[in-house]
Amino acid sequence: MRRMRARHVFGIAAVCLALPIFFAGVAQSHGYTQNPPSRSYNCAQGTVNDCGAIQWEPQSVEGPKGFPQAGPQDGQLCAADNASFAELDDPRGGQWPAVDLTAGRDFQFTWSLTARHATTSFRYFVTKDGWDPSAPLTRDQLEPEPFLTVDFGGQPPATVEHTGRLPDGKSGRHLIYGVWDVADTGNAFYSCADVNFG
């Protein structure tokens, strides 16, 4: 009887010790764009339904860095090759909520970071004119060069804001692909934000 009681107490103690470690690992996940609102942010806010796990982990869209030469595979760019977040790659018939922007104007980009990794840069790509919003995103649907690169070179704060010029000459529905390049790991964080240039 004493042995069983001791095992029971030991088991409870082990669980109690493990829980903070488990939750610390969850809390240290990473970052997402709030402005423009990313697909993962829209899922977390309940603006979009049927999002799967990303609604609880909008900060976790992490994949191999080196985009566009390396990084996530075509068709899996929005989920960064993470099958758990495949809902982000579903184009939903081109019906993701899109924020209205004005081409060629200054815009304040905002990232919310739940773990502040040492950072090389933040880069932003935009889809080409004539891209198909009802198909999963691929590299050939994006302009080959970022329209904005913000060099960072250090550890960012919990909220990163920077102002940059939106691309000229764009109109209608597009997608902005944000890349947060982490300096001290082999990964980056990726963000798909649906926009409408008026």
Number of domains: 1
Element pattern in H and E: HEHEEEEEEEE
CATH superfamily: chitin-binding protein cbp21
Q: State the CATH topology.
A: Coagulation Factor XIII, Chain A, domain 1
Specify the biggest β-sheet.
Answer: 6 strands, mixed
Strand content: 25-35%
Unreliably modeled segments:
2-29
Radius of gyration: 19 Å
Oligomer: single chain
| Separation, N- and C-terminal Cα atoms | 75 Å
Helix content bin: 10-25%
Number of distinct helices = 2
Mean pLDDT: 86
CATH level 1 class label: Mainly Beta
Structural class: alpha+beta
Q: Indicate the overall shape.
A: globular
Q: Tell me what the CATH architecture is.
A: Distorted Sandwich
According to DSSP, the number of beta strands is 9
Summarize the helices and strands and which ones pair or pack.
Elements (H helix, E strand, L loop, with lengths): L1 H26 L3 E5 L3 H6 L17 E3 L34 E3 L4 E8 L5 E8 L21 E7 L4 E7 L6 E11 L4 E11 L1
Parallel strand pairs: 3-9
Antiparallel strand pairs: 1-4, 2-9, 4-7, 5-6, 5-8, 8-9
